Amino acid sequence: xxxxxxxxxxxxxxxxxxxxxxxxxxxxxxxxxxxxxxxxxxxxxxxxxxxxxxxxxxxxxxxxxxxxxxxxxxxxxxxxxxxxxxxxxxxxxxxxxxxxxxxxxxxxxxxxxxxxxxxxxxxxxxxxxxxxxxxxxxxxxxxxxxxxxxxxxxxxxxxxxxxxxxxxxxxxxxxxxxxxxxxxxxxxxxxxxxxxxxxxxxxxxxxxxxxxxxx
Length: 215
Description:
This protein is an all-alpha fold. It folds into two domains: 5-66; 68-212. It has seven helices and no strands. It has helices at 5-17, 23-39, 46-83, 87-107, 109-136, 147-173, 175-212. Helix 2 crosses helix 3 (46-83) and helix 5 (109-136) packs antiparallel against helix 6 (147-173). It is elongated. The chain starts with a helix and ends with a helix.
């Protein structure tokens, strides 16, 4: 039995009522439930089918939440590596290094590394604003990417911020280490921002698909 768009919308509403709020998790469950239901020969009514699968949906949603950390860290690392396969990246990197060399020649290593530090902090603050804006606001669009997803994507890049204090003495005696550290930190944190935007666009397509079911 082929489910209609209205049926799919009803599945989505059912999952929301059962506490599965975020579409990046719901969409995966809907895909599985639709496939399973349409493969059954003696079709039960949809509501009965969903009631029997409620416990399973909650277990899967919980497991996904537990495994999401490593899956998104792997996705982030792939994003970072993809930079090095893109020729324009080396052009941007060359411009960045040229600016740093100019600042160092004119003002010294301390000011250069302080400037890099504040650029890095600016990127991190933007991540927090992004997380708050999309993860907490009440509109439906904010649920395209769950707050847990955002936290997990940004957790690895933010480690660079927490380690700065520990490495401060090393940076003071070895300024070049600080330059390398903040350059890598910026690359990883910018990659995280891009990864979030990519997943958000995918979530938007899924959201629009479900919304179109109401037509």
